Amino acid sequence: MQENANEIQVKLFEKPQRKGKGKGKGKRSAVEPTDNYALDVTEEVNCTIKSLYRARLPISAPKYKDLKRLCENGIIPKAYHFEYLNLPSSVNVPDIFPETDAEDGEDTDNESHKNDDDEFTQNCT
């Protein structure tokens, strides 16, 4: 482990110049780093993330039963049994697959998700 876990070493490299670019010819020489920088990452972010749900969302009872069977048969590795067997389940949750979009191959939905990251960064200052 690093001595100072609050520092990140950043090494900048020059781009190698190649003759016959794209033809697979020529030798590559090692490129020396131009500068080294140490960044201090101890700055705190004053941000609270709101929970979307009040409790963990349950899975359907048949899905839980299937997960339990997969754990008992050794198909799911033992390291994950605790996580899967502690999932909440309910008989009131329908056991269905979510519907897919009619236009799966098209990127018509990109505009609606474009500013999702902007909303997060605006709330965290």
From TrEMBL:
Residue ranges of the region described as Disordered: 1-32, 93-125
Point to the regions of Acidic residues compositional bias. 98-109
* Segments of skewed composition (Basic residues): 18-28
Q: What is this protein called?
A: Uncharacterized protein
* Protein's organism: Euphydryas editha
